[in-house]
Amino acid sequence: ISNKITSLAYEPYSGLLYVGTDEALHTVEIGRLFKSDDLVLGTTIAYPNPFKPDEGQTLIIANKDNTIMPQGKNQCRIYNKNGELVITLEEDRFFRFSWDGRNSSGRNSSSGIYFYVVSSEAGEVSRGTIALIR
Predict the structure, then answer these.
(1) Buried b / exposed e along 16-48 (16+ C-beta atoms within 10 A)
(2) Is the pLDDT assigned to residue 49 strictly greater than 70?
(3) H/E/C letters for each residue in 18-34?
(4) Of 96, 93, 112, the residue nearest 46 (C-alpha)
(5) Helix boundaries (H) for the chain
(6) Which residues contact 103 (CB under 8 A, 6 or more apart)?
(7) With a threshold of 0.85, does the pTM exceed it?
(8) For labeling, which of 41, 59, 116, 127 is most exposed (least CB within 10 Å)?
């Protein structure tokens, strides 16, 4: 990238920031402001996995193909290995789920294997596994 920026443009549906310089046009994904109507809940991914919240990491759970969740109210529930609900997450401002490793009481969850279930308003469901390391 050049040190001389000549123009900027943001596309809210793709989440791309276009940076024009005197040498080239560059793009950076900074997050979407809107969801498109054609999104469906497919396979989800959780990263980083293993997840180390004590090192400042935040776990992201996203729709693998589109990175954002479909239209409507979506939910992510995280369970421990005994099947007990640890926390229910709401979508963040980037239309995905973020977890800081705390339970619904605000206490740190212990090291171990956790399971997540993402459900869409349309009834679609995706599941996965998380390794949390303290």
Answers:
(1) beebeeeeeeeeeeebbeebeeebebeebebee
(2) yes
(3) EEEECCCEEEEECCCCC
(4) 96
(5) none
(6) 86, 87, 109
(7) no
(8) 127
pLDDT band at 123 (very low <50, low <70, confident <90, very high): confident
**DSSP-derived 3-state class of residue 46:** strand
**Tokens 């498109």 sit on residue:** 36
d(CA 48, CA 51): 5
State residue 72's pLDDT score: 74
Q: d(Cα 66, Cα 129) in Å, to the nearest integer? A: 20
Q: Is 64 helix (H, G, I), strand (E, B) or coil?
A: coil
The pLDDT value given to residue 41: 64
Q: Using alpha carbons only, give the angle 72, 80, 102 rounded to the nearest 5 degrees.
A: 70
3-state secondary structure of 53: helix
